Amino acid sequence: MVFDPAEWNVPATDFQKQDWNYSVYGCDGLTEELPEDMPKPLGKSMRMHVYVDSDHAGDSLTRRSRTGFVVFLNSAPIYWFSKRQTSCETSTFGSEFIAMKTACDYVKGLRYKLRMMGVRVDEPTYIYGDNQSVLANTSNPGSTLKKKWGFFS
Questions:
Q1: Superkingdom, according to UniProt (predicted)?
Q2: Are 76 and 4 in contact (CB under 8 A)?
Q3: Averaged over 16-28, what is the pLDDT?
Q4: What is the pTM of this model?
Q5: CATH fold of 48-138, please?
Q6: Sheet containing 48-55, strands listed edge to edge, beginning at the edge strand earlier in sequence
Q7: Which pLDDT does position 27 carry in this prediction?
């Protein structure tokens, strides 16, 4: 594997700006919590993007879905993940949403770790998915989650 330091350019049509101020998740005053003893970042800022997908009920025996994602730093893949989900989802939306949550959790930790190693990560992480329902529920500030989460014993 070769690390490609070339800067990745975000296509302007891929991520349209939204006004999150009226949402309960509004952006006013939000900042990432970083420790005071964090090393000073060196070099150029790195741009991170992720491709996420899942296959609904792909395991023919257990009917569980598989989560997969690839993380790129600039133009180089630095991490890939593929694992069977722990729950058995009844819809494609559910399995894609679990995959998106798994990728977001990983990215949150990775951004922190990169910063603690002195890598400059100033921009948001761009996450690509192929399920329109999940994208609508996670990128539109006026959207309410249309998935009922229920756990039965």
A1: Eukaryota
A2: yes
A3: 63
A4: 0.79
A5: Nucleotidyltransferase; domain 5 (3.30.420)
A6: 76-84, 66-73, 48-55, 126-128
A7: 62
